[in-house]
Amino acid sequence: MTNVPWEFSTEQDALLALAGDFPREVYLDDRNSRTAELRERLKLKASDKVFEIGSGDGMVAKLLSALCRSIDCADISESFLASAKAECKGIRNIKFHRIPGRSLKFLPSGSYDCGFSLNVFIHLNPHDMYLYFSEVMRVLKPGGLFYFDACTLGPQTLDVFRQQVSIYAETLDARGLLNFNHPQLISTLATEVGLTVSDDSAVSTEGWSGFVLVKPVN
């Protein structure tokens, strides 16, 4: 792995970032499960125009592509974008974009029925989260939905926190580690930009959460 977060020189390093210590077969099963969850949470329709923040290796976009009109995938990592383009080669309704900073300026305002982001917001501090929420608010159509996962410090995540404290103690570098943001903080940030937390969210103070945000119609 290079010393630049989210840039990789080998497939093994990329899989480690995406799946941790789990075998690829387990990772692929998880991607299928997450795709099914997204379809339900976003109430996905064949006519929907979708965007993704953090394409990773493109596996989820590939699975979703047959269920919607189009997907615009975005990532900060050139390595992941190259991998995702290879994974999705030949799929005509998927496009890829590199994220500059925390801006989605390459996506037109008010144009998307829904969007999602998996295993990205778990790494974001409140400032980055606010910037992305602002962009989500801009690009969604009124009534549009955005799903993402997040984490806080609780019984489900304490072991991960202890492991990452050890990593941080050696490197004094928090890039790539989890950010444990309380659900109330996340809800406050979403409200600040004008988004509403849907009742379809699975919000927990135990560790892991899945948020569905809605752009109000009025």
User: What's the pLDDT, averaged over the residues?
Assistant: 91
Main sheet: strands, sense, barrel:
7 strands, mixed
Helix content: 25-40%
What CATH calls the topology is Rossmann fold
Q: What is the number of helices?
A: 7
Number of strands: 7
**Poorly predicted ranges:** none
Radius of gyration, CA atoms, in whole angstroms? 17 Å
From the helix content, strand content and strand pairing, which structural class follows? Answer: alpha/beta
CATH class: Alpha Beta
CATH 2nd-level architecture: 3-Layer(aba) Sandwich
Described by the principal axes of the CA atoms, the overall outline is globular
Name the strands of the widest sheet in spatial order. Answer: 3-2-1-4-5-7-6
Gap between N and C termini: 47 Å
User: Helices and strands, in N-to-C order?
Assistant: HHEHEHEEHEHHEE
CATH superfamily: Vaccinia Virus protein VP39
In short:
By secondary structure, the protein is of the alpha/beta class. It has helices at residues 11-19, 24-41, 59-64, 78-87, 126-139, 158-171, 183-193, and strands at residues 49-53, 70-75, 94-98, 112-117, 140-151, 196-197, 208-214.
Describe the structure.
The protein has 218 residues and is α/β, with parallel strands linked by helices. The chain has one domain: 3-Layer(aba) Sandwich (Rossmann fold), CATH 3.40.50. The protein is 38% helix and 20% strand. It is built from seven helices and seven strands; from the N terminus they run H-H-E-H-E-H-E-E-H-E-H-H-E-E. Strands 3-2-1-4-5-7-6 form a seven-stranded mixed sheet. The longest helix is centred in the N-terminal third of the chain and has 18 residues. The radius of gyration is 17 Å and the shape is globular. The mean pLDDT is 91.
